[in-house]
Structure formats: C-alpha cells, structure tokens
C-alpha cells in the first residue's frame, strides 16, 4: 500500500508538472495569436488609410486635370476672375455696410433728437398760430357784425333825425303860416276873430300835436342815447378785440421767429451730418481702393504662381498615373494578404483549439485521478473516524467522591484516555481525544476538513454520541457566546463558497428535523407534529428524500441564526420539558451544498448531516415503564442500528441494514459510498458517571476497531451488539456477553489496530 501510495504521489507530481507545462504553452500560444491578430489589424488599418489618401489624391488630380493646358489656364483664370469679382462684391458690400454704419449712429444722435423736439415744438406753435388765427377770424367776423349793426343803427338814427327835422320844419312852417294867418286876420278883425277862434281851436290841436311830437322827439333822443351807449360798448369791445388781435399777432410773430430759428438749427445739423457722411464714404472708398489694389497685386502673384505650377502639375500627372496603377493593383494585393492572414489565423485558432481540447482532456483525467487518489486516501485513512471529548467537571456533578475526576490522559498520545473504573484503570484509544480544556475552536479545527469536503460533493455525517449531560449539545450547538460545530461549519461553508465564487455557483440550504420514538418531524415546518415519511426518489436514482421537509436557503450567518432560532422556538413550544425531550430524541441539522462549475458545467451536491443523538444512558436497567420504557427502547434500537450500519459499512459487507431505524434510513446516502462519518463520543469525567462513560468509550472503540482487515472483521462480529448488550460492568464481561459471538476485548484489539493505523497515518 505504501509503495502504491508513493507511486501514486509521484504520478501525481509528474502530471502536475505536465499540466503546468501545457498551461504555459497555451499561454504562449494565446499571446502569439493575439500579437499576430493585432499586427494584421494594424496592417489593414494602414492600408485603408493609404487607400483613402490615394483616392483623395486621385480626385484632386482629376479635378486639376480637367482639360488641355490652355483650357485649364483659361479655366483657372476664369475661376480667379470669378473669385476677384466676388472679392470686389464683398468689398462693395463692405462699403455699403460702412455707409450704413455711418448713417446708423445718427439714429441715436442728440441732433436728431433736438430736431425732433424742435419740429414737435414747431408743429405745436403752428397749431397754436392756427388756433389764434381762427380766433382772430372769429373776432373779425364779430367786429364786422357789430360794425354792420352800428351802421344800421346810425342809419336809423339819421333817418329819425331827418324825420324829426322834417317834422320840425313842417311844424315851424305851419307855425309861420299860422302866424301869418293871424297877422292877416288881425287885419280882418271879424274874420280874424273867427279865424282866431278857429286858430285857437286849431292851435290847441297844434299844441297837442307839438306835445306829441316833443314826446316822440324825447323818445327818439332816448333811443339815440341808448344807441350811442351800445355803440360805445361796441367800440370798446372792438378795441379790446383789436388789442387781443395785436397780442396774438405778436405771439405768432414770436412763434414764427422761433420756428425759423429751429429750422435753421436743423438745417445746420443736417448739413453737418451730410458732411460727416461724405467724409466716411470717402474714407471707405479710399480703403476699398487700397484693398482692391492689394487684390490686384495678389492676382498678379497668383498668375506668376500659376506659371510656375505648370511643371509641378506635369510631375503630378505622372505621379497620378503611377498611383492609379498602384490603386488598380491594390485590391488584389489586399485580398492576397487578407487571404493569407485569414489562413494563418484560422490555423492558429485550430491549433489553440486542439491544444485546449488536449488540455481539457488532461485536466479531466487529472481531476479523476485526483478524486481516485482522494478516495484511496480516505479509504486508507478510514472514512469513519471516532473522536472522544471529555467535558469538564461542572457544578451539576455535585461534590464529594461522586464528583471526583475519573478520567486521565496520556501526555504523549492525544488519542489515548484512561478511565478509573471500580479501582481499575482501563485505557482506550480513539482517533483523537479532546481533554476538558479543549476549546470549541480546537474541536472544530479537527472537523473542518470534513465540512469543506462537503463543498466538493461529499456527504458527511457528524454524530454526537454519549449519555445525557456529557456535552453532546454543547459540542454540536454550543452557546451563543461560544458556538459549536453547527454554526462554525456553516460559517466555514459560507467563506469557502465565497472563495470559489469566481468559478462556481453555490446554493446552501438547511433543514432541521427530529426523530422521536422513530417518528420523523420537521423542526422548520408549519406542522411540527406531522410525521414525515422517507421515500425513494421517483427518478430511479435510488436516492432518498423526505417529502414535505422544509428547506431554507441561507446566504449569511444572520440567516442561519434565524433558522436556528426558529427551530429552537418550535422545539421549546412543542415540549413541556425541553431538556428531557431533547435527551430522548435525535436532532438533525441537514445542510445541503449544491454547486455548479460554470466553466465545465459540472454539478456537485454535498450533504452535511449534523446529528445530536439521544442520550445513550441505559434506561432499561432502572426498570422504567410505559412511555419512558418505549422511549428507551426506541433509543436503544436506533443507536444499535447506527452501530450496525457503521460496522457493516466498514467491514464492507454486501448488506448494510439501513432500514433498521429511521435515523440510518434517513442518512443512508450520507453514510454509504464515499461519505465520511465522524462520531464524537462525549463523556463525563465524574466518578458517578464512570459506568456510562465506560459504555460510551466501548462503543467508540468498537466502531473504530472494525477498521482491521476484513478477515479479522469477519471473525470478529457477525452483527453489531445492541445497546442493551453493551451494558456490562467490566470491559471483559462486555466482550463475552455480545449475543454469543466472540468479540475481542478493547484492550486486545485496539493496541494492534492503533499501531497499524499510526504507521499508515505517518506514511500518508
Ligand atoms: P448533552 O447534550 O449531552 O445532554 P449538554 O451539552 O447539555 O449535554 O451539556 C451538559 C452541561 O455541561 C451543560 O451545562 C454544558 O454547558 C456543560 N458542558 C458540556 N460540555 C462542556 C465543555 N466542553 N465545556 C464546558 N461546559 C460543558
Ligand atoms: Mg443535549
């Protein structure tokens, strides 16, 4: 076996070297390929750029080579002419722009504003003058009317005066006539008397008439006075009108003078502006002339250039022709190059592919070999390992001789433990023994390799075995401050999975179950009282599964804490006395790790079963009855079945009695095949517990001792002794009490097997 081991290791080293070499080759090949493709890309790029350049050159030359030289010259000149014309136009435009610019500022100049103001004033004044004139005309009209009326009144006055004078004349004549008549009548007294009498009569009449006339005269005189008064008023009015008119006329004159003045000012300003404008135009014109001159000079220069360019043109034509030829040939050349490059690339790719295939084949072979090696190693090391853990003496152990320490250790061998039982020292050898001072951390250190192999797709079972109070729960669950294997294992799984996240996708799920009186219950389910069944997978894979068992996907420590708390709460609420109940049931935490290698598509599934077994103490002996007895029987049966299964597996028997208990049936696929099992046997060091301690240690050593060769195994035991059969007061009596089969005492077997295994371990 050692020879084969060393041979295998050598083979492994050789293969690793080969693998490294091939990887280097592959890397080199890849580099080559990359540089080649880059080079080709660069070539294609430069060729493209050249092609572009040549096309541009061709188009340029084509435009230059439009016709004969004379025509070209003419065309050129025409173009030049056109250009100059445009320049000229531009100059004119500029000039116009300048003129416009010169005028434009007047828009904002103060003169214009002043002008506008004056004009406004002027129009205002004119309007006023107009108004005044209208008023004047009105007054004139009034005066005219009044004058007319006056003339009328005068005329009437004259008429009435004439009438009066006439009347006076007539009256005075009649008076004279009357006086003459009186004189003549005096001379004719008779007659006269008569006449006097008539005259007297008549005179009265005349007097009356006179009176009338006088009153009339009076009235007329009054009227004349009145008319005179009116006339006077009218004259006064006329005078005032005339005065206003004079005033208005003076105002008009004044306004007109102002207007004149404003107009004069405006004219002056306009004059000044005109002058400025003329000046600017002159300036622009002179500038344009200068520019024009420069343009003409330029034109002359261009003409001379044109003359010198002609030979250059000839050489360019020549070049163009050669380039044309090159361009014609270029696609062919390019195609040729591309074809060869493509061929090279595809060849290189093909080579890389074949190398890759080869490498992958080798890698797979290597993987298989590694797995084989691993399996072999596991087989050699034993895939069932048995550890012992001694808890410290606690307050619960009491005081006095009962609580005395009965367990001692070997300073040179951490696999050995001595128990003082009834005055005799019995020694046991396990794979490793943890003394009371061993910390949870130390215990886990020994376990973690098993936990990580779960990620590689192995199934793992870790059992805590021992009497109640020996520390099973402490080892598996631990305390909040100092967690046990359960939490540490999950934490480790998380960190490992994170480390492999670059290539692998992992999913971690947990389930928690309990087996009590051979009934399986889901600790995370909604119906914790429901009994679950274990069934064969319908896919024909032979795998077992539990329909209805709750699985929680966990991604962090917080998730696990929640799950644990949930399960714990369930258990607490379901049971009146948790401690008692838990000591009589098996508690399982099942962690499933499913992985997918993204590069190869390889899938792995590993299961980690962490089992806190029921207390192994022998209840039957104390004469228990009823349910207590039933519980004890179930516990005994399932623990014996576990021992049987482990025994059958280790001795490679054809039939493994998994179905003898719920526990072994449930864990069937995690116990068989490449699976790994760890039995952590918990013991109490107290004197009063030595009997149970002895039983537990015997169990441990027997599980371990099966590892001897198959011949001795066969000779050793036909079947695993039941729990009851383990009950023995002394190691010697236990050996002889096992169902009539010959079973060597631990002392006889262990020393030999241990020395053989130690040799194997040191060589491996
Ligand atoms: P079990 O689960 O086997 O019945 P427990 O794990 O409940 O036993 O342990 C019983 C008592 O002993 C508990 O109080 C526990 O804290 C204590 N105990 C067990 N193992 C250790 C240890 N290694 N270090 C300290 N205390 C321990
Ligand atoms: Mg417990």
TrEMBL record:
Locations listed in the record: Cell junction, Adherens junction; Cytoplasm, Cytoskeleton, Microtubule organizing center, Centrosome; Cytoplasmic vesicle membrane
Protein's gene: Kifc3
Similarity annotation: Belongs to the TRAFAC class myosin-kinesin ATPase superfamily. Kinesin family.
GO cellular component: adherens junction; centrosome; cytoplasmic vesicle membrane; kinesin complex; microtubule
Name of this chain's protein: Kinesin-like protein
Any one Pfam family match given in the protein's UniProt record, by short name: Kinesin
Bias-annotated ranges (Basic residues): 755-764
Cited function: Minus-end microtubule-dependent motor protein. Involved in apically targeted transport. Required for zonula adherens maintenance.
Species this protein is from: Irena cyanogastra (Philippine fairy-bluebird)
GO BP terms in the entry: microtubule-based movement
Compositionally biased spans, kind Polar residues: 745-754
Keyword Lipid biosynthesis: no
């Amino acid at each position: 076996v050692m020879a084969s081991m060393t041979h295998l290791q050598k083979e492994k080293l050789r293969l690793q070297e080969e693998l490294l070499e091939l990887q280097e080759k592959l890397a080199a090949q890849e580099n080559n390929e990359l540089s080649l493709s880059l080079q080709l890309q660069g070539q294609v790029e430069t060729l493209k750029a050249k092609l572009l350049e040549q096309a541009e050159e061709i188009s340029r030359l084509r435009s230059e080579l439009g016709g004969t030289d004379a025509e070209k010259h003419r065309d050129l000149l025409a173009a030049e002419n056109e250009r100059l014309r445009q320049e000229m136009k531009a100059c004119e435009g500029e000039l116009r722009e300048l003129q416009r610019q010169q005028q434009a500022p007047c828009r904002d100049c103060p003169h214009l504003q002043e002008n506008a103001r004056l004009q406004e004033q002027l129009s205002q004044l004119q309007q006023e003058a107009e108004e005044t004139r209208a008023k004047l005309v009105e007054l004139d009209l009034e005066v005219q009317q009044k004058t007319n009326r006056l003339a009328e009144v005068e005329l009437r006055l004259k008429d009435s005066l004439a009438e009066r004078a006439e009347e006076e004349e007539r009256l005075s004549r009649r008076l004279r006539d009357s006086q003459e008549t009186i004189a003549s009548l005096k001379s004719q007294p008779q007659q006269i008397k008569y006449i006097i009498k008539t005259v007297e009569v008549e005179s009265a009449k005349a007097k009356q008439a006179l009176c009338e006339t006088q009153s009339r005269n009076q009235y007329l005189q009054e009227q004349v006075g009145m008319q005179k008064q009116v006339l006077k008023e009218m004259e006064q009015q006329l005078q005032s009108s005339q005065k206003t008119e004079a005033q208005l006329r003076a105002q008009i004159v004044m306004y007109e003078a102002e207007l004149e003045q404003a107009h004069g000012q405006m004219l002056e300003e306009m004059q000044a502006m005109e002058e400025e404008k003329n000046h600017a135009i002159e300036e622009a014109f002179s500038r344009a002339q200068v520019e024009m001159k420069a343009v003409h000079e330029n034109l002359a220069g261009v003409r001379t250039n044109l003359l010198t360019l002609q030979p250059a043109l000839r050489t360019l034509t020549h070049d163009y022709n050669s380039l044309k030829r090159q361009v014609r040939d270029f696609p062919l050349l390019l195609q040729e190059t591309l074809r060869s490059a493509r061929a090279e690339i595809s060849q290189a790719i093909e080579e890389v592919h074949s190398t890759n295939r080869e490498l992958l084949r080798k890698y797979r072979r290597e993987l298989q070999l590694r797995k084989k090696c691993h399996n072999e190693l596991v087989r050699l090391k034993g895939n069932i390992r048995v550890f012992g853990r001694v808890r410290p003496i606690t307050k619960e152990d009491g005081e006095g001789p009962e609580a005395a320490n009965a367990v001692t250790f070997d300073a040179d061998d951490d696999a050995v433990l001595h128990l003082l039982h009834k005055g005799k020292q019995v020694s046991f050898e396990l794979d490793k023994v943890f003394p009371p001072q061993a910390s949870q951390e130390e215990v886990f250190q020994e376990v973690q390799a098993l936990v990580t192999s779960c990620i590689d797709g192995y199934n793992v079972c870790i059992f805590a075995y021992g009497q109640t109070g020996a520390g099973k729960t402490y080892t598996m669950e631990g305390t909040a401050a100092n967690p046990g294997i359960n939490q540490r294992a999950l934490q480790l799984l998380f960190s490992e999975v994170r480390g492999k996240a670059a290539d692998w996708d992992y999913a971690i799920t947990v389930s928690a179950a309990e087996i009590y009186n051979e009934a399986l219950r889901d600790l995370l389910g909604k119906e914790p009282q429901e009994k679950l069944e274990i069934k064969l997978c319908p896919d024909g894979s032979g795998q077992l599964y539990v329909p209805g068992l709750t699985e929680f996907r966990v991604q962090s420590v917080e998730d696990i804490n929640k799950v644990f708390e949930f399960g714990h709460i369930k258990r607490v609420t379901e049971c009146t006395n948790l401690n008692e109940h838990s000591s009589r049931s098996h508690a399982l935490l099942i962690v499933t790790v499913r992985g997918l290698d993204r590069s190869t598509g390889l899938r792995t599934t590993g299961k980690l079963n962490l089992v806190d077994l029921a207390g192994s103490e022998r209840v039957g002996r104390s004469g228990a009855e009823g349910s207590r007895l039933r519980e004890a029987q179930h516990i005994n049966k399932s623990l014996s079945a576990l021992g049987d299964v482990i025994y059958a597996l280790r001795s490679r028997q054809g039939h493994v009695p998994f179905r003898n208990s719920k526990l072994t049936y449930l864990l069937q696929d995690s116990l068989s095949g490449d699976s790994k099992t760890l039995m952590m046997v918990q013991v109490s060091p107290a004197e009063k517990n030595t009997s149970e301690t002895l039983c537990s240690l015997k169990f441990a050593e027997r599980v371990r001792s099966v590892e001897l060769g198959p011949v001795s195994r066969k000779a050793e035991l036909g079947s695993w002794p039941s729990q009851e059969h383990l009950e023995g007061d002394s190691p010697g009596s236990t050996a002889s009490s096992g169902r009539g089969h010959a079973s060597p005492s631990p002392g006889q077997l262990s020393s030999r097997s241990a020395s053989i295994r130690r040799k194997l371990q040191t060589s491996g």
